[in-house]
Amino acid sequence: MTPTSPDSSSRVRLNITLYAATVVLACAAIFLGFVLWQDKDDEATPQLGADVGRGVVTEVGEAPDDVQARVAAQLDSASEMAAAMTNLDYRDPDKAITTVQALASGDFLKQYNSATSDLKKLAAQAKSTMTGKVVWTGLVSGDKDSATVIVATTGTVSNKQTDFKERENNYRIQIELVLDKGKWLTRDLQFVT
């Protein structure tokens, strides 16, 4: 057994003290970082009643049931039209054409009807098949008798030009709706970028 020198025992106490101080400082740094992170998050999303410079954050109430039902019908109608426009099989083009015609109105219906024979001819020549589904819809504006809806779709297309390999086919479509005899119909449709 070797006797412990006074320097050796004081060194052990110093190391223990430094270790404890390091642990305490690390815990304080973590706590401070958490507090600052939480404070930053509160600034990014002001709370109800907070003054944000141009006004006070207020709660938006839920829309009345009739408004919710109307908006849902507008979004459903636009989704149906977008799905009809992005699904076409050259072997049975009338299925898609009939669906679009049932959901269309006014000048858009007239323009579409005048283009159907060319659509059938081009689809048959190219042996084109398009499949699509609606990814999301959003109401741009709407009231009791009209609405503008943006619809995003995703899908595939295959034809002679793609060597009959499916290629990705994504669209954003702006659809203008009108209430016609109790049914929301498309009066204009544009593919947008």
How does this structure look, described?
The chain has four helices and six strands. The protein is an alpha+beta fold. It has two domains: 1-47; 65-192, Nuclear Transport Factor 2, Chain: A (Roll). A hairpin with an 8-residue loop joins β3 and β4. α3 runs antiparallel to α4.
List keywords for this structure.
membrane, 4 helices, transmembrane, transmembrane helix, Nuclear Transport Factor 2, Chain: A, 2 domains, 193 residues
Overall 3D form = elongated
Oligomer: single chain
Q: Which H/E pattern describes the elements? A: HHEHHEEEEE
Total helices: the number is 4
Q: Biggest sheet, in brief?
A: 6 strands, antiparallel
The end-to-end span amounts to: 85 Å
According to CATH, the fold-level topology of the largest domain is: Nuclear Transport Factor 2, Chain: A
Number of strands: 6
CATH class descriptor of the largest domain:
Alpha Beta
How is this structure best summarized?
Helices cover 47% and strands 26% of the residues.
Question: What topology emerges from the helices and strands here?
Answer:
Blueprint: H1 6-44, H2 65-85, E1 88-89, H3 93-102, H4 106-126, E2 129-142, E3 146-158, E4 167-168, E5 171-180, E6 183-192
Antiparallel strand pairs: 1-2, 2-3, 3-4, 3-5, 5-6
Helix pairs in contact: 3-4
